[in-house]
Specification:
The structure holds 2 protein chains of 2 kinds. Chain A is an alpha/beta fold. Chain A has 2 domains: 164 residues, Thiamin diphosphate (ThDP)-binding fold, Pyr/PP domains (Rossmann fold), CATH 3.40.50; 128 residues, Rossmann fold. In chain A, helix 8 links the parallel strand 10 and strand 11. In chain A, helix 8 crosses helix 12 and helix 9 packs across helix 10. In chain B, helix 5 packs parallel to helix 6. Chain B is an alpha/beta fold. Helices cover 41% and strands 11% of the residues of chain B. Chain B is built from 10 helices and 7 strands. The longest helix of chain B is centred in the N-terminal third of the chain and has 30 residues. In chain B, strands 1-2-3-7-6 form a 5-stranded parallel β-sheet, sandwiched between helices. The two termini of chain B are 31 Å apart. Chain B has one domain: Thiamin diphosphate (ThDP)-binding fold, Pyr/PP domains (Rossmann fold, 3-Layer(aba) Sandwich), CATH 3.40.50.970. Classes of the chains: A alpha/beta, B alpha/beta. At the A-B interface, helix 3 and helix 5 of A face helix 5 and helix 6 of B.
């Protein structure tokens, strides 16, 4: 199996920006909206190249979601851009009624997700957004792990007719997936084959899981690593196939353990193949100010914590 | 037929339709002992004028006017006009608010009901949606118009003011928003609950072209003012029409009160209400 190496750290939001730029050049039905965070979302090139198809809404996210629903009603493919916090909780009812229940082809693109937004603190971080979005009937929920995958996801979702929540982050993180991987909504990616334990990770925790697996291999533990970019609909087959081989599992995400990927997996394996599971995620807490790496370390969202959880889950394996 | 005779016939037809729609509204809400007759009855003349004389909604998908209902609770009048303008069979009105129906308590496109573009009911969202549709029309170089109806109490929702600000700042001039000023909301009069103040001045200062319909239950005046509003489209400013209506119009005991905002008449009340509006073109 291919060995994944860091091709050079980049931020996932720049992957979004590049994907959107490409869409601007290739798909005339794509329009973009932003609530005063064009620079943070890396939407400047699209805005500059497509002034008629870019809508600066000002600091008015509720209106932005409504406008997007209307643009979709008129046949356009709107991409909205703001921080994950302001993309979800702030506009939940607008998304629920005007987008999800109305089945509008709106792509809600959310940067600065999770805790790695860093120094701005808990008001701007969000660790609840995956839960909020996955509970909406008909909503597709995607959380990408690196620059390449975010770019592929950004262009890929334009070919899918329906509401999508696309979640990515602020900091520079290892860019390790291949541009030739392609992007299939709802398909997990087997990054590394192993026999003793399965790690299923999403977003920034995918790289940390690969790092953990390298450490664990040194201890003689054979680890399978699965990259889940689509949290809903979940690729049940890839998870069940893996856990039926390894017999135990660790889920890892930059999100509250309540409502995240881990819970979706737990529901799946409880009904289909009951197996011990450990959860990497925040423990029902708000974030705080700090550097991204200090925060990831404090809240146990790193390879060290994943390694420890693997050892714990192996003890419970029958 | 002479022009005068033709106009006379049209007026009679429209008045007959108004009365028939009132009957539909009353019978629909009575049938399931729920729904919102007051605001529905107040807007019958508006819907009849809009769908029979204003909207260009032919089979041609391009350059088609679009209507967005923001105050979704007045679904009875919306469903009735849609059925009676051929969007679906009038007998489907009998399924209103029942299990497995496309005619949900509040309107939605979720179940594929023809003529409905979006879900509404949670208030304050339709204006933004309408402006979004208007933007898509501009991108398509489509010269048709987007019409939106909102309630007055609904303007207490902040999202409307984000939308009012946006449309004026971005010169969205292919939209005509009508505000149903019936002065009532669930807890009482809009003045008592949360006074909206001078809406005319507010919207003018927000950069909108403001027109008024003094009698929003007059077919003639609605047509005159909306036609005037159409003349003002594509001139750089969004247009809003402030339309004073009487809640419960056409049923004497339902008029001038908020009591019938969300309450259905009982058997006896239905009979009295229907007797004030004798059948014209035929009940569903």
């Amino acid at each position: 199996m291919e060995k994944y190496i860091n091709q050079g750290s980049k931020d996932t939001r720049s992957g979004f920006g590049e994907g959107l730029t490409e869409l601007g050049r290739t798909n005339k039905e794509v329009v973009a909206l932003c609530a005063d965070l064009t620079g943070s979302l890396k939407m400047e090139v699209f805005a500059k190249e497509n002034p008629n198809r870019f809508f600066q809404t000002g600091i008015a996210e509720a209106n932005m979601i409504g406008l997007a629903a209307g643009l979709a009603t008129g046949g356009k493919i709107p991409y909205t851009g703001t921080f994950a916090n302001f993309s979800t909780g702030r506009v939940y009812d607008q998304i629920r009624q005007s987008v999800a229940y109305s089945n509008k082809n709106v792509k809600i693109c959310a940067s600065h997700a999770g805790i790695t937004l860093g120094e701005d603190g808990a008001t701007h971080q969000i660790l609840e957004d995956i839960g909020l979005m996955k509970m909406l009937p008909g909503m597709t929920v995607i959380n990408t792990c690196d620059f390449n995958q975010t770019k592929l996801a950004t262009t890929g979702i334009s070919n899918f007719d329906g509401p999508v929540y696309l979640r990515f982050g602020r900091p520079k993180v290892p860019n390790f997936t291949s541009v030739t991987d392609g992007f299939n909504i709802g398909k997990g990616i087997l990054l590394k084959e192993g026999l003793d334990v399965t790690i299923v990770a999403t977003g920034h925790l995918v790289w940390e899981s690969l790092e953990a697996s390298t450490e664990l291999e040194k201890k003689g533990i054979s680890v399978e690593v699965i990259n889940i970019h689509t949290i809903k609909p979940l690729d049940e087959d890839i998870i069940l196939e893996s856990v039926s081989k390894t017999g135990c599992l660790v889920s890892a995400e930059e999100h509250n353990i309540f409502g995240g990927l881990g819970e979706s997996i737990s529901r799946l394996i409880t009904t289909k193949f009951p197996s011990p599971q450990e959860f990497i995620g925040t423990r029902d807490t708000f974030g705080e100010s700090g550097t991204p790496s200090d925060l990831m370390n404090k809240y146990g969202l790193n390879s060290t914590s994943i390694t420890k959880s693997v050892i714990d889950v192996l003890k419970r394996k029958r | 037929m002479s022009i005068t005779l033709h106009l006379l016939k049209m007026n009679t037809d429209l008045k007959n339709l108004v009365i028939q729609i009132r009957r539909d509204i009353l019978r629909m809400v009575h049938n399931v002992n729920s729904g919102h007759p007051g605001g529905s009855l107040g807007c019958v003349e508006f819907f009849v004028t809009l769908y029979k004389r204003i909207l260009n909604i032919g089979s041609d998908q391009i350059n088609k006017d679009v209507f967005i209902l923001s105050n979704g609770h007045i679904s009875p009048v919306y469903y009735s006009i849609l059925a009676r303008t051929g969007h679906f069979d009038i007998n489907e009105l009998n399924t209103f608010r029942k299990i497995d129906s496309r005619l949900q308590g509040h309107p939605t496109n979720h179940d594929g009901l023809p003529g409905v573009n979006i879900s509404s009911g949670s208030l304050g969202q339709g204006l933004s949606v309408g402006i979004g549709v208007a933007l898509s029309k501009k991108l398509n170089n489509d010269d048709s118009i987007v019409y939106v109806l909102t309630g007055d109490g609904e303007l207490q929702e902040g999202q409307n003011w984000e939308a009012f600000m946006f449309a004026a700042a971005k010169n969205v001039d292919n939209i005509i928003v009508t505000v149903d000023l019936n002065g009532q909301q669930i807890d009482g009069s809009t003045k008592d609950v949360l006074d909206i103040g001078n809406l005319n001045l507010k919207l003018e200062s927000f950069g909108w072209e403001v027109l008024e319909i003094k009698d929003g239950n007059s077919l003639d005046e609605i047509y005159k003012v909306i036609s005037n509003a159409k003349e003002k489209t594509f001139k750089g400013k969004p247009i809003v029409v402030l339309m004073k209506t009487v809640m419960g119009n056409g049923v004497d005991f339902m008029m001038h009160t908020h009591d019938w905002h969300g309450k259905a008449p009982n058997d006896e009340q239905l009979e009295i209400a229907l007797s004030q509006n004798p059948e014209t073109i035929g009940d569903y």
